Amino acid sequence: MKPFFESTMASITDFLTTVRPVRTVRNIQIVLVSLTLLFVTYNLAVPFFGQKKINTSAEGQFSEGKIAPETVQSAKEFYYEDEEKTQQERIKARASVPYSFDKDYTVLSAGIDVNLSEDIELLRTLNLDGQKPSPQQVKERIPRWRNRTNEELQAILDYPKKEKLKSFIQQYTNLIFSRYCIVKEELSFQKELEKSGAKVRNIGTQDGSYLIDATLILPRSQIYKEGPILSALQKLAEDKLPNVSPILLKSVSRIGLYYIFSYPACTFNAEETDFARKKAEASVTVQRSRIQANEIIVRAGEVITPAVKLKIDMMNRYATRANVASIVSIFISQCVLVAIIGFYLIRYRPNRLNDLSSNLIIFITLWIVIFSVYIVSKTYYANDIEWAGKYYFALFVPVGMICLLLGFVYDEQLSIAIGFFLSFAVFFASRYNATSFMLAFTVAVVSAVYGRSLKKRIDFLKAGILLSFVQILISTAGYLFDGRDFWTSSPELSFFSNLSNSNIFHLVILCFINGFASATAVQFLLPIYEYVFNIPTRFKLIELADTGHPLLQQLLTKAPSTYTHTFMVAAMSERAAQNLNLNWLLVRVGVYFHDIGKIPNAGFFIENQHLIPKPEHIDKNNPSLAAKTVIDHVLDGIEMAKKARLPREIINFIPEHHGTSTMAFFYHKALQDLPASARKNIKKSDFQYPGPIPQSKETAIVMLADSLEAASRSLDDVSSESLDELIRKIVNSKLAENQLDESGLTFGDLEVIKASFKEVLISSLHQRPKYPKPEDTKALEAAAKSKQKR
User: Fold this and answer.
1) What are phi and psi of 3, to 5 degrees?
2) Residue pLDDT, tens place only, 39-69
3) Quick one: which of 130, 124, 279 has its CA closest to 199?
4) What letters, b where the CB count within 10 A reaches 16 and e where it falls short, cover 638-668?
5) Which of 336, 416, 478, 584 is the most exposed place for a label (fewest CB within 10 A)?
6) Beta strand 99-104 with 198-203: parallel, antiparallel or unpaired?
7) Any stretches that span the bilayer, and where are they (predicted)?
8) Distance between CA 92 and CA 76 in Å, rounded?
9) CA distance 17 to 27
10) Residues 194 and 227 in one domain
C-alpha cells in the first residue's frame, strides 16, 4: 500500500511540476482566470440575486396597516422615481409663483389727476365772490368731497394756496399709486398671496414688471378702515409731507384716498398667473428617492405605513433591474482588476507562474478566500444583531492568510498583487465600505512583506500579533471617521462589565482572532501545500538538508567519497550564493542531491575506486561505454529524485550541474584509440551530458564548484596563485562551452564566485606543520634531566 501511495504521489507531483511550453501554461492560466472571474462574480453578486418579491396587496402579509411579520432590508442601494415626492415638488413650485397683477398708469393721468384738477378749480370759484365759503358750500359745489367732515373742509378753505394744496393731494395720491397696488375686489387668496407675493406688470409706462410683498396689494375697501393699513397710509403722508399742518394733512390724506378709492388701478390677472404656475410645474423634474444598501425598510413587529409600503413596492419594482446592473458592474470591475494584475505580473514577474502547480496553488487559495467571503456575506448581512454597526466586514475575511502564505512561498510582489485583487473583492462584498477596503489592503501588504521574512516557527506567532495590531489601528481610524461609539457605559454596571460590553473591546478581540487565525491557518496549510505541490519552502529545504535523509544515507554508505565531495561542493557553492545574496539554502540542498545518481554504480566513479576496487570499474578500452555509464548517473539521479518526491527546483541541480559539457577524458580516449580514418565515426554528442545547461545562477554556481572541487584534488601545490589559475581555467572552460549563457550570471558575479571558491578552498586544503614523535620529545626531556644531575 505504501509503495503504491508513494508512487501515486510521485506521479502527481511530476504531473504538477513538469515544465510545459509557455503557450500551454498561458492557456491553462486563461482557463483558471476565466473560472475565477465567474466564481468571484457569482459569489459577490449572490446577495443581489432574487431579492424576493414582497406581497403588499390587500391580502398580503405586508399590506398597509398590518404588522410586519419579519424584517425587510434592502440588499443594495438603488434609486427610484418617487411620484409622491414629484407631486409635492410641483405643488411647492406652483405655490411659489407670485400672483400676477396689472397696474394701469393711465388711470392716474386720465382719472385721478383730471378729477383733482376739476375739484381744485371748483374750490377756487367759491372764493371769487369775495365771501368766505362754508364747508357746506364746498360739499354742494364739489360732490366728490361731500363725505369729508366740516373740520377737514374748513382746513382746506383756510389754506390760502390752492395750487399748493393741489400739489399736496397730487403728491400723496402719486405716492400711494406707485407704492401700492389697489384692487377693486376683495382677494379670496389673501393667505396664499402672503406666501408667494405678487408680480405687478405696469401698463401705460415704460417700467416693466416687478415683484412686491403681499402687504402692498390692498383691496380698496381696506384703505378707509381703521387699522394697520390706514395707519400705514397716514404715516406715509406724515413722512413725505413734513411741512403740512396736521389738520391740513389729515384733509389732504382723506381726499387723496378718495381718488385712490374711486380709481383702483390694479386688477388681478388670473390668466397670467395660471400660465406662470403651469410653467413652474412643468419645470419640476421627476424626483428620485434613494434606498440605501442594508437599509432596513421595516422591522418585524412594526406597522406597515404608507411610506413603508411605497419603499417595499419600489424594491419589488426595481429589484430585478438592480440585480442585473450589479452583476454587470461587478463583472466589469473584476475584468479590469484582473487585467491590471495580469499586466503587473507579466511586466515584473514574467517567470513566476510558469508551471501548473504554482497556478493551482494561487488560484485554489484564491477560491478558498472568495468562498469564505461568500459565507461571511451570507452571515454578516443576515444577522439581526446588526454586526455592520460594530464590526467591519473585512475583519471576517482571511486576507492575511493567503498573502502571508503566498509571500512566504513565493514573493511579496505576487502576494501584493493577489491581495490587491482580494481587497476589491472585500470592498464589493462589504457594500462599498471604505474602511473594509483599507483593512483588507493594509493587511495584504503587511502579510506579503512579512511572509517573505518568515524563518522560524515563532515568526508565525509574531505575524499574528503584527496583523492584529495593524487591524486594530485601521479599525480605530474607521471608527473615528464613521463617528461610531467606542464606549457606551451603564451606571448600573461595573467598569469591567461595561468594558466587556463595549464596542472597542469586541473590536479588539475580533482583530486578534483574525490575525492569529490567519497565521495559524498558514501553519496548517503549509505542510499540506508542501506535500501535495512539493514546494521547496524554507522549512521544506531545512528538512531536506537533514543528512539523515535516506538518499543521503545511501550516498554515505555506498559512495562515501562522493558524499565527501558533495559536502565540499556544498560549502563552496553556499559561500558563493551568500555573497551574491541568492537562495543559499536552496543551493545547499541542491548540492546534497546533485550526485545521488552515482549510488547505483558508485565504484565506477574515480573518487570511489580506491574504496571499492573492482577491475570492471573503469574500462579504459571502451570509452563509449564508460561515457554512457557516466551520463546514466544523471538520468538515474533524476529518476531517484522523482521517486523520493524531491522538489523540481532541487531536481534541476542534477542535470544542470553538468549542463551539456563534454567528457573530455573519454572523448579524447575514443579518438586516440582509433585510426585517423575511423575517427569520423565518433559522435561528440555521445560524450556530452544531456543537459540542459544551467537555467539559474544557483545551478551555474554548482556546475563551477563541482568541476573545481574535483580538479583541486589533482593540485600538487596548493597556493593562492595555483588556486587562482585553476579557478580561472575552470571558469573559462565553461564559458568556452557556452555552459553559462542562460544562467543569468554576469562577469561581476563570476568575480564574486571566484573569490568565494578560493576562500573555501584555501581554508580546506591548507597544510599543517608535522607534529614531533613522542619518543623524540621524551629523548629531549631525558637529556635535560641528565644535564641537571651534573
Assistant:
1) -60, -40
2) 888 888 776 665 677 888 888 888 989 999 8
3) 279
4) bebbbebbbbbbbbbbbbbbbbbbbbeebbe
5) 336
6) parallel
7) 28-49, 324-346, 358-377, 389-410, 416-449, 461-481, 504-529
8) 31
9) 16
10) yes
